[in-house]
Design a protein that fits this description.
Length: 96
């Protein structure tokens, strides 16, 4: 019988040194002023949406900072641009 999948997908197979470096890079990226601003905005919007629509309405939805509305988690991934626009989060960043 196969093992159940871990939530969030398989763990990367990194050496301890590489894992430590990745953790530091990820932490630095998560704590930039831009990311902090987006986290605060997301938290505020989620609380407002809970008041307006109820907690169950938010299940499976994330706030899209580009579209400025709640969309499905799948739709809110980097690389889900309309035809004619370059895919990826770097392209999104330069657009804003």
């Amino acid at each position: 019988m196969a093992k159940p999948k871990k939530k969030g997908g398989p763990k990367q197979q990194l050496s301890p040194k590489a894992a430590a470096a990745k953790k530091e890079r990820d932490t630095d990226a998560a704590n930039t002023p831009e990311r902090k601003k987006k986290r605060a905005e997301n938290q505020k919007k989620r609380l407002e949406a809970i008041e307006e629509h109820g907690k169950n309405w938010l299940i499976g939805k994330d706030y899209d900072h580009n579209k400025q509305r709640f969309v499905s988690v799948a739709e809110n991934r980097g690389g889900t641009q309309p035809a004619g626009q370059k895919d990826g989060t770097k392209a999104e960043k330069t657009k804003n």
